[in-house]
Write a structure and sequence with these properties.
Blueprint: E1 2-6, E2 14-20, E3 26-32, E4 35-41, H1 46-68, H2 72-91, E5 99-103, E6 111-114, E7 119-123, H3 131-146, H4 152-158, H5 164-179, E8 187-190
Parallel strand pairs: 2-4, 5-7
Antiparallel strand pairs: 1-2, 3-4, 3-8, 6-7
Helix pairs in contact: 2-3, 3-5
Protein name: Protein of uncharacterized function DUF45
Pfam families: YgjP-like
Domain YgjP-like metallopeptidase: 94-161
Length: 200
Amino acid sequence: MTESFLPATPTRPAVVVRRSKKRHRTLSARQDGDHVLVMVPWGMDPDGERRKVEKLVTTLLNRRRRYTATTDEELMERADRLARSYLDPVVGSRVRPSSVRWVTNQNHRWGSCTVRTGQIRLSARMAGFPRWVSDYVLLHELCHLVEPNHGSRFHELLSRYPQADKAEGFLTGWSWATSMGGTDGGVGTDAMDPAPADID
């Protein structure tokens, strides 16, 4: 395995390009602290590698920018909508968090809820995930405001979300793929094909 380093520019953070003999066709990129880590196949044509790395980094950064456009205020509005739709009618009272924020320090869970303060935090690793997946995680944390543990009442509340099974499957699949070295938690493309301009 070899690495090269591309210094930061005014429009992007530093990039570490890691070449691996285990990779045969695919490239992937993910934010790794203050730099972007790009995994590429060993022995790739240097000109092709440079073009694909730049395109993949641009795609990743554009996706991150779209994600950061969701402000904390918008997250609170989503929490309000989800609670009104799935919790308030069953609980018989208004379920609202004191705050909802994106955080970058949750690398082992998708979200957290501090019941005592009503604060909900969502992992920034969900950047670029479909809205129905992040809504599921947000609703999961909202359910903790009603039921702090994962008992039967908690699961009964969460199961009211129509896409709960689908979202759980998405998160499980993403976690498995990441643990196997598939997605690296970022974006990827096939080294033999041009990178898509917009990955959703």
